Amino acid sequence: MNPKFWTADVSALTKTQVKEKLWEELRLKADIGTEGIAISEQALNSLHEDESFTGQKLGGGRNRKLNRGKELPGCIYLPYGLKVTFTWNDTSPYVVEFINGGHSLTHKGKVLGAIQYAKKLPYEGQKSSDGVPLELIGHADYYDKHVIITYSNECCYIERDEDCLFCNINYDKDLYTEKFGPFWRTPKSVAETVKAAFENGVADHATLTGGVIAERRELEYYVDAGEEICNTLGVDKFNGTATVAAPTDFNNIRKLKEAGFRTTAMNLELWNKDFYKAVCPGKARGSGGWDNWVKALEYAVGVFGWGRVRSNFVAGIEPMPRTLEGFEYLSGKGVVCSMNVWAPNVGSAFEGHRSPEPAWYIELGAKLAELWKRNGFSFDQIHDATAGDYRLPSDIYRIENEIFDIYEAAGKVSA
Ligand code: SF4
Fold first, then answer.
1. Would 55 disulfide with which of 71, 207, 273, 357, CB 3.0-4.6 Å?
2. How many CB atoms are located within 10 Å of the residue 237 CB?
């Protein structure tokens, strides 16, 4: 049975009322996404006294500033159960406080409700055969039934000063290796982590991702990792996504499928060609350019199938109509688009910038969820193609189609 992610009492609510509450909470979530979130010292201390606590394991991540203090939470679950990434901003009006022995979200001092955190996974502390704790290899959450593994902590685009302007992977590199290691996750340790997450029921979908390696050597790595995961699970294919930069030789896309991955992802990030060139110069120059990227996505649909290929967008850098053009075009070709609330994070070239208003994100997310529906993507396909079910379009799709467990609790007194 899934853990219960909400704290609100819905026993006196109808499903329609729960839907309204979830929409309200979605607006709150979008606002937290753009404002970030702080936590009081008392709340953080109490978290660290709790043996079930598991944190970010990151230096920079999506945070506004570098955290040199105690490990912060990776996410919170809001009162009606929506998951919010913990984007730390110590000046945010949203603060988690320790109140009456529990943790509550507050806004400018007003209590909004009790929240929960992700709990330690059953296999935390277990080590891979090369001696690395599995939780440092992949991050998993029952909420999404998803494990994400970043195979390395660098991207070679930095060598020409062409890394994406919103990305801080290379900034994070020293922080990771300084504190958390390992720098490189071997195919064997990746496979062991996927196995632990799948066998313990924490995840049923794995995403493998990471920076681009010189001479595109990561493409071979993906094949090795896919084969190793299949061997370790004793299967010939598995529910995994290979997240790659578009190859210029499309045979590499076929090889990913043959290595066992169910889905692939090539994240275009921005649709307008000029924005793309300016914001993602390495992708634009090193992966055959925008046209090649789009062709690769269409080719991948031919290999993996309709709804089995994803492209993520960092929304809020280019104007909404441009991003929507991309969503419309790619969705009509069978590509599942996804989008992040842009968090201008520490160590990225955009550090110190601000993202658009929350309503901007809700509007874009709703339009994308509508496109998913119109193009016949089932929630299972969306789950399998995207890196976690916690972004705004997933929430909207689930709210509108009543795919949250909280709907089952509506009008019932809990045992
Ligand atoms: S391709 Fe861009 S987003 Fe991906 S790791 Fe490199 S710099 Fe970051």
1. 71
2. 15
Rounded distance between C-alpha atoms, residue 363 and residue 350, angstroms: 23
Q: Contact, 263 vs 304, CB < 8 A?
A: yes
Choose one of 160, 162, 163, 209 to mutate for the ligand 1 pocket test, by most ligand atoms within 8 angstroms of C-beta.
Answer: 163
The sign one gets for the Cα dihedral 85, 91, 96, 98 is positive
pLDDT tens digits along 124-136: 989 999 998 898 8
167 lines ligand 1 (CB under 6 A): yes
Task: Give per-residue pLDDT as tens, 249-267.
Answer: 999 999 999 999 999 999 9
Structure tokens at 127: 């080590």
Q: How many CB atoms lie within 10 A of CB 125?
A: 10
Overall pTM surpassing 0.85 (yes/no)? yes
Q: Report whether residue 157 contacts ligand 1, using a CB cutoff of 6 Å.
A: yes
CA distances from 337 to 125, 307, 343 (A): 35, 9, 19
Is the pLDDT assigned to residue 400 strictly greater than 70?
yes
